[in-house]
Structures are given as C-alpha cells and as structure tokens.
Fold this sequence. Notes:
By secondary structure, the chain is mostly helical. It is built from 13 helices and 7 strands.
Amino acid sequence: xxxxxxxxxxxxxxxxxxxxxxxxxxxxxxxxxxxxxxxxxxxxxxxxxxxxxxxxxxxxxxxxxxxxxxxxxxxxxxxxxxxxxxxxxxxxxxxxxxxxxxxxxxxxxxxxxxxxxxxxxxxxxxxxxxxxxxxxxxxxxxxxxxxxxxxxxxxxxxxxxxxxxxxxxxxxxxxxxxxxxxxxxxxxxxxxxxxxxxxxxxxxxxxxxxxxxxxxxxxxxxxxxxxxxxxxxxxxxxxxxxxxxxxxxxxxxxxxxxxxxxxxxxxxxxxxxxxxxxxxxxxxxxxxxxxxxxxxxxxxxxxxxxxxxxxxxxxx
Length: 316
C-alpha cells in the first residue's frame, strides 16, 4: 500500500501530502489564517458530551456507550427522499449519532456494562428494531459489533475495563482499537504514503477522554496526540469557512449529492485535506488540541446549508 506513517506523524504527513491532492482540494491560506486568528481570540472549550444519549456519570456504562457506540458510528446519511433513522432519547426524537448512542445507552441499562458477552446474543440483532426511518448498513453494524465483542473476549477477558487498562494513553488506545480489529481500522493511500486515518478509533479515544473529564473523572493521557477525526461533516464546515476549496468537478459532484466511492482520489483528497487543515490550525493556535477543534467543526457543520460529501463506508 505504500510507506506506512506512524500515528504520531499522521497530521504532519497529511500536511505534507497537500500537493498530491491539489487536483481536487486545496487549502486557502488566507481563510485559514482568519480562522486561526478567531480561535486565538476565542479559545474553544473541551466538549462535555453531556447530551442525554450519554450517561450522566463516569463509570463502566459511560465507557461502554462510547466504545461500543463508536464501533457503530458511521454512515447516517440516507438517499434523497428517505428519512434518517430516529430513536427517542429522553423523550425527544433524535437522529444521526445521538440516536445511535441513545439506543446503545438504553440497551445497556440494567446490564453489567463492562461485560461484552451480550454482543454474541440475539439482542444485537434487534438494536435497530423500533425507531423510524432508514438506518444504513445494519448488517455491517451488527457484524462489526459482534466482531468487536469477540476480540474483547479473546484478548481482554470480555471486559472493557481490561481493554482500557491496556491503553491509558489516548493515541495508544486508538491505535490498539484499530490494529486489533478491522471494526475500527480506517486507512487511505496517497503520495506513496499509507495513512492510518482511523476516524472512529480516534473519536472513541477523544470522546472518552472529554466525557470522563467533564464528569470529574480521570481522562486519558496525552489527548493532544490525536488528530482531527476525518468524517463527512468536517470538510463541509471547512469549505464553508473558505479553508477548503474544492475543484469545480468535485464541488459539482458534492453539491449534486453524487456519491464518491470510498478510497477514490476525490474522497481521499477530502479526508487528507481535512487533516492537513487541522494540522495547520493546531500549529497556528498555541494550546489548541484536536479534541476541541474537531468538536467545534463538527457542531458547526449542522448549521451549514451546503451538502456534505456522500460515501458509503464503515470508516465514517
């Protein structure tokens, strides 16, 4: 696949690969500088992940919702004319990631949340029963969750706490999750480099750190080693800010809702450009980390009218 890049070097590697993706996406340095100045003037808070989809207290239930949820946390978009899958959370209908995390939270209530044995039982098949609308890739989600549970059982005695004890460092946890099971792996190749983007593995680590800290518990070590989590929301936000500039053909395809194939040059360019922009912003804003920057860009994306790019993948 090409020369592998160490996880610690992922951000700089994507920054260095800008020339290879410029046919499809490039960074506008002036827009990047303007946003960096804004971030320096208005420091970002650590995300709290205090939505009712998540447990209100730190502990095994929170850890389980985050780790199992991120094993499933991908591909919520549906074709034009279809309705996104909806699940009630705290009495209100939710879609997208909060619906999924809320559903898992409900499924884990009353269980020993640290024990993954139930993932081999029939309950997993029914996770997406009920609710309304369309949940894409249900078979892949069920199979992935079972595979994740089987790995935790074989390698960590079936206990999520044993898994977490094996990797108390944020990037080490993301690397362990991705290296040990295909459920969390996510790579792209560009410019002779094998880039371990690992969106969901990094998000699992970053979310777990932030959610624990927000609840007064100990987070993970060295969360600043994480990069942005390259999904389909962040490029939309960065494009709206003027930081990512799409080539005319790519802009037309995204705006028309055309699907970009996973691992295609265009889809790869969007993800690599997102991480390059993140690396540039982290360099330009002292003290900023990707955990806070990613959350701010992700949340801002819900207020952008333009479409996000569409790719059918379990990566994000």
